[in-house]
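Model it.
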Amino acid sequence: MHPVLFKIGSFTIYTFGVMLSLGFILGSSLAARGIREIKGDVQRFWDLCFWIFIAGIVGSRLHYVIINAGDFWDACFYPEKVGLVNSSCFEALYVWKGGLAFYGGFIVAFLTSIAYMKRHKINAWAWSDIIAPCVFLGLGIGRLGCFSAADDFGKPTDLPWALKFPNLVGYPDLENVPIHPTQLYMLMKDVLVFMVGYVWLRKRKTFDGQGTFVCLGLYSVLRFVVEFFRGDYKRGFIFEADLFQLYADGIEQFPHYGPEILSNAQLISIILFVISLGMLAYLARSSRAARTKA
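Modeled.
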């Protein structure tokens, strides 16, 4: 666990920010290659990348702040309550310290990019089929930043690949306890979505938009599953119940880590999965109708 990559005097470079940037650069470069292959305007694509980056950061941070609103409120107005005597009301803006919720960023960036492409009369679904898998590749690389910052960690487990994190901010009961490395689970999930969308489906698709919503649907299913192994119980739940014994029955050294049934991310996963199925059906039907008329 190396949340700080290096320091130059008082200037700190955080691993989370570096990995997030590397993921964005690699994903964007690969997407630019795909746009070039379909004779798209690569310069226009790089302009789009700027707006995707801004929208993604704003949306993901906003989502994170909303689901952790109580903590940010206390840090701002009651710092002594949470032991953050040097905290600031601007903590919500400190993106470089970690704390981004993917779904918020994805939704805002997706809507922004579709609006941009429609405005500039770009074939939005054809471009999206190239861009969407690369977004998940970049996200996967960014998960290494989560790993370094001990964000999005897992539940206690006695599995042989369990890891211990010495400094889980806000979760002292889980420090140095063997837990699921869910950041790495999410990395593997994101790489799988990229492989399906960019490597396998990109040149096999039968209609524009198919790659986009296959990726989104697959990601939603995998994210829903990984959420069951997450241990950061303060991330927010729709329904709650004490399921601790289901995960740690008989393992006395594992601390009680809280209630859960359906996390916010799982609810969003269900909604996006349904939307993906609906859009796949709609776009497939529209494509068949267009071919029939031709």
